[in-house]
Thioesterase (Ornithinibacillus halotolerans), 434 residues
Amino acid sequence: MATKHELIIQHIISLSVGSKISVRQIAKDLNVSEGTAYRAIKEAENIGLVSTIERVGTIRIERKKKENFEKLTFAEVINIVDGQVLGGRDGLHKTLNKFLIGAMQIDAMKRYTEAGSLLIVGNRVKAHEMALNEGAAVLITGGFDTEDHIKQLADEKQLPIISTSYDSFTVATMINRAIYDQLIKKEIVLVGDICTPVEQAHYLHLGNIVEDWYMANEQSTHSRFPVLDKKNRVVGMVTSKDIIGKDRNTPIEKVMTKNPIHVQSKASIATVGHMMVWEGIEVVPVVDESSELKGIVSRQDVLKALQQIQRQPQIGETIDDIVKNTVEDTDDKTVYQAKVIPQMTNQLGTLSPGVFTSLITEASSRHLLRLKKGDLVVENITVYFIKPVPIDAILLIKPVIIEAGRIYAKMDVEVYHEKKLIGKALLMAQIMDR
């Protein structure tokens, strides 16, 4: 039987896109407390079913697909530009396909304005009217208002007309940045994207015995299984080590490890990969906030995802991406080269300490791969010193392995500029074997 929380989520899903949602109305319609309704609405917001906008309220929106992150809804635009809705509230859930700045004559502007777009323009009432008639929403910059008949037209066509105090260039930059940030998020693979769903996963229950472990082991390639209670919550974990020498009729509850390590679906694969290496485990259960099992993720799943990411083209570029593209091999196979570009500097115009650690991590990772040791998962970095480095400086990075085992490595890294030592660090890491 579904819980009250699940019933509210199902009710929200059943509402049409654009419907307004209130805690009081949900509580009244479903006969639940306002506290329960509030928590469920917040969860719906977290999973992308609703959006809360200041001075507008909470509305049902269309959940975005991961591959459609390069588009924003008009409701999100309001939050980005700190805008105010002047009309067309019923269209806030709609997605904009592109935006254009109205810095031209009306006739020329009309050629570029199309349905589903957003026209960014100042106090030009005729341009507002033209955009709405062409099926486009309007974002008025400079904090200006518009005429009442324009607001009425926006309501009729269900196309938002929004006002913001920012200028056109700033608004365009803010929207571009929001799209860019979401493109970066698109590239971050989460556990929920790669885990085996609960319907296909192998697991045990508290009422099972050791014999059931052997049956699950034959049906799968794993030797590690989560143990669930009557509510499908993960309460334990059973591995081959736990059942060795035990009678096959022994209850699972007596041999399992209680309170096992688990992750939620929103965790990144980098996080779970580090956890697997650090703890030496092959399979981790994936749970929700109430510890109910949603799936399992194995080390093979993580490795496949990491290899797949490396083959994908990068769209949104992070600092780590910039560092990865900057570090180059040299003729000396023990030395790596990197150029300091403006994105790597701090407010003083010198190499940022954070980028310095990224540079030595990237060089050390390449060095281990060159020696066929495996992928590096940083455990600890100790920076002994770093001297100011100007823009356009060419750095030589020299990682030297002090100790290296099957799953562990310790490296001394020196960084030079114009033959002078400008930084030194000690890196300790786990090795994830390919």
